[in-house]
Amino acid sequence: MQALLLSLAQATMPHLMLAPIALPLVTAALMLILREEQQRLKVTLNLLSTALGLLIALVLLFWSNQQGLPTSLGVYLPGNWPAPFGIVLALDRLAALMLVLTSTVALASVLFASARWHRAGVHYHPLFQFQLMGLSGAFLTADLFNLFVFFEIMLAASYGLLLHGSGRARVQSGLHYIAINLAASALFLIGVSMLYGITGTLNMADLARSMPAVAPNDRGLLHAAAAILATAFLIKAAAWPLNFWLVPAYSAATAPVGALFALMTKVGIYALLRLWTLLFGTESGASAWFGSLWLLSGGLLTMAFGAIGMLGSQRLGHLAGYAAVLSSGTLLAAMGFGHNLLTGSLLYYLPGSTLAVSALFLLSDLIDRWRTEGSGTMPYEPLADEAPFLDAELVPAAGMNLDDDEEVLVGRVIPAAAAFMGISFLGCTLMVAGLPPLASFVGKFAMLTAVLNPLGMGASAGHQPGWYGWSFLALLIASGLLALIALTRVGIRHFWAAHDRPPPQLRWAEGLPIAGLLLTCVLLSVVAEPVLRYTQATADALHSPGTYIRAVMSAVPTPSPVYMSPEKQQPLEDGP
């Protein structure tokens, strides 16, 4: 299978790099032509396009990780202009990883939405595809201005998706979401304009090449521009105190939209990681690792905020939102250390935590629907006596462990749908809290090991993590404990407490995506060794950006076609 995918990639590269952007664009344009009554055809097109996008992303992933080519990097010039004058798309291991993650979550989201939520409003499917186009473009572009363009495509689609389904809560949260993202876009433009004024370029590789040559008098202005640009990315990454909008907005969205939005915070993480290692790495002169303490401190505060928010939440949607904040804080704090071993570990942790949060958003919709079945939208209130079959000493009372027909309750078969939801909730709990044996535990353990052994196992004797290192270790463990307490409390309330309600109704289109996301988390832990090798190679390339810079800057445009004039039989170039 891998050989087949590699042969397909070899035959279609570099043009295949354009497919993750062009495919959703064409699909969305086609669905806009269809009438709103043709929902079944739109669902089919959306599912087929998203599944094909996942296949393309896997092909690109295998191509970027070919054996014997540790620096595999694809460069595509859509306008056939050399860098830094034209648009450039660049594919490396990091971009390929994010494309696969995006397509995986998107496929689960659209399959879940096909059961019921896609009918709650108009233009759901075109907006969904435009969202995928913006996400894919942001991961592939090698130019800051085009990064802004794809950000705006992604945000414009997200505005419509957030409001999908209407309702006062969605409108109110949607207005806050739009306002804060418009402010972030303004900061993005200001930061990009200042960088262009200082360096004269917006190509990422050219910017990295220009960093050491910035005049000392302009160094302060450069740092100010980078800080303004980073603020825009930190808003998207849900860093504290810029994340006040996230939980109300994400929890108010429909479940499949919330699952897709779990990727949105990772776009901010990706942009920060990409630009920070390129522009402020070890080769950037006096600006080396500028902002590392800010990233580290902000990440630690975000971790604490997310963990406390989870502990104080009662609603499943809010729990999922704070879990996304906790995941982003962990990634930001680990990134701030600037160690390639720690970066490799956080890149392993990133997909697992994102999949778990997406699954929790989808699962929260099923559990809330089951909880309010037959009672409108009123939340569940605990009864005065939660355990009538126990006496004051918590000993089973004689004759009380019976139902209305005086049949023993012990050993009663659990409905299959309730059992599936309970097992899925347990899997989400293990992933969010970082408990064994799933992928989040492996990622957290790898991060702990990297902090204590930054030079590698057996080579860091006598090294002390320092105040920031010990704080990160403590918060990594404590946040997992608080997340476990919060999720366990909610799980007991929904699955163990006595409820007078019918068994849950679960469609295959709702259960299959949740099972798929959690099985992918299991797969990540089963194949942890090769995945960790992949993420470590990704981190090593990020912290040594010379290969990326040379590949982008040395990309040669394709020569114009030549034909023979029938009159003069002389070769003429096609075009001026």
Automatic annotation (TrEMBL):
Residues 143-389 form the NADH:quinone oxidoreductase/Mrp antiporter transmembrane domain. The chain crosses the membrane at residues 12-33, 45-63, 83-112, 132-157, 177-199, 220-239, 259-281, 293-313, 346-364, 413-434, 441-461, 467-487, 508-528. It holds the Pfam family Proton_antipo_M. Its main location: membrane. Keywords: Cell membrane, Membrane, Transmembrane, Transmembrane helix. It is a multi-pass membrane protein. InterPro entries: CPA3_Na-H_Antiporter_D, ND/Mrp_TM. It is found in: Cell membrane; Membrane. Belongs to the CPA3 antiporters (TC 2.A.63) subunit D family. This is Monovalent cation/H+ antiporter subunit D. It comes from Giesbergeria sinuosa.
